[in-house]
Write a structure and sequence with these properties.
By secondary structure, this protein is of the alpha/beta class. It has 2 domains: about 5-10 and about 255-385, Aspartate Aminotransferase, domain 1; about 15-255, Type I PLP-dependent aspartate aminotransferase-like (Major domain) (Aspartate Aminotransferase, domain 2). About 40% of the residues lie in helices and about 15% in strands. The chain has a 7-stranded mixed beta sheet with strand order 2-8-7-6-5-3-4, sandwiched between helices. It has a 3-stranded antiparallel beta sheet with strand order 9-10-12. The mean pLDDT is about 95. The protein binds pyridoxal-5'-phosphate (PLP). Pyridoxal-5'-phosphate (PLP) binds near residues 74, 151, 178, 201 and 202.
Length: about 400
Amino acid sequence: MKIYADNAATTVVSDAALAAMLPCFQEVYGNPSSLHSPGQRAAEKLAAARETFAKYLNADPREITFTSGGSEADNQALRSAAALGARKGKKHIISTKFEHHAILHTLEALEKEGCEVTLLDIPPDGIVTVEQVKAALRPDTCLVSVMFANNEIGTIQPIPEIGAVCHEAGVLFHTDAVQAAGHLPIDVQAMHIDLLSLSAHKFHGPKGVGVLYARRGIALTNVIYGGAQERGKRAGTENIPGICGAAAAFEEACANMEKNAVYVADMRDKLIEGLTKIPHSILNGDAKRRLPGNVNLCFEGIEGESLLLLLDAKGIAASSGSACTSGSLDPSHVLLALGRPHEVAHGSLRLSICEYNTPEEMDYILAELPGIIHYLRDMSPVWDELEKGQRPHLI
Ligand SMILES: *Cc1c(COP(=O)(O)O)cnc(C)c1O
């Protein structure tokens, strides 16, 4: 059996997204900036895609900027808010310790440029509280950036509540909604969101396409300079095939959201129930307030990397933490922020499933995983010490 359970890293492009992309390569290949009809046909497709994103986010098409992905949208959102803040003498930014590196590394760069950054701690359930945000606000705070749902542990943050607090305080609110878009309902008006990033390849669209929503009146700062595309805020000939694929994928994901969420969450709960029965295992993040497709556990006495290789040999594609940190020996910053000790954080497994997975696949995972954990623990000197009582069990 071949099971793809790494949908938080990326997803397969859907039939609808592919069908929307294909005509853009050899039929509608004009440059949307060109005045001739081939160009105008491309411009129409671009406008339609922009309307699709605006519709499902409850935004205005003029508030939608296409980027090269979630990372670029995150970079541009933070840089724009920091620049607007600087004009008013406000240089303080609030974010959290478990953001994606697209946020954390941009904040590091902004700190070098004179910003002051407060990163909120992550409570044991993986859900930042409104009170934490409130307590961190300062008169010179220009931006709060809290992710909608975490990419490793899947926990969903109280976005509307945080947005309301920010608006009351007159502070801009950005959310990295890359994991949430297409999976959870998003309404930028009702949720008081000023800036929002999303990425097509996390909801069955193509890689290399992102969206930055910026509320009207918020002037964006360029990250890419050049031509006047995207109202002058993001230069470069628009990736029409990618953008059309992204819009088709978003429309499909939003139209089927409820149905998919129920189906996927059911499989998720089955996995959580079965896998937490493995001795000395622990679920990372709240069991219910998490993305429908996210399961993340730590198993004591094993290395996540070895677990992934053995799972791969059984046909199961999973992840240990985020795709960006795998390959490095550092444990996930998210699990450390959650309070997991280093040695526990190393033994993490993320299974991220979607509507293309089946209950039979979950049965297969549940049948194979306990044996693999047992096998790895049998070989582990650390597990030996744990079992002999030479070191204390941490979970
Ligand atoms: C994947 C991801 C990103 C980066 O998006 P790209 O399109 O791959 O650049 C940013 N934030 C989160 C939460 C993500 O999961």
